[in-house]
Amino acid sequence: MSEATSAELTALQAALAAEHAAVYGYGVVGGRIGEARRAEARAGYDAHRARRDALGREVRDLGAEPVAASAGYALPFPVPDSVAAVRLAAELEERVAGVYSDLVRAAGDARRREAVASLREAAVRAVRWRGGSVAFPGLAERPGTDPATGSASVPAASTPSAAAAPSGTPAA
Asked: pTM value?
């Protein structure tokens, strides 16, 4: 297996793991979300299940065993009500977008187009859940950067490089 194929497989497996976590998280969202947004939660759940299944097939097509879902996932915060469920859905989408941005960097051609589409869909769902957007969905804000202006608030030498930033793999 070439180095490029290996990097792509690693990114595919990370995206698959993120989709497993998102499916789990949307199960929690669906159990707490209010009636007004239940259809939106169902659509998110279905979209992540479909992406999860497609990624599993892609990993198998590359001759590897797809990463398995965990029995459970740690949620980033308690989800006792509908307000918290909306926050969780937005968080799930932002984390999935981050993992797809990694796949965009690692993939080539058709797989890159699919990763871009997945990134875009997650970013749109995050905006709908959160009610606001970020400049570059899928890219974590660098520490020491003012999100409102994008300017550094600490000397550049003391901030980690973008390559060292965590990819945003969902914990939910």
From this structure: 0.78
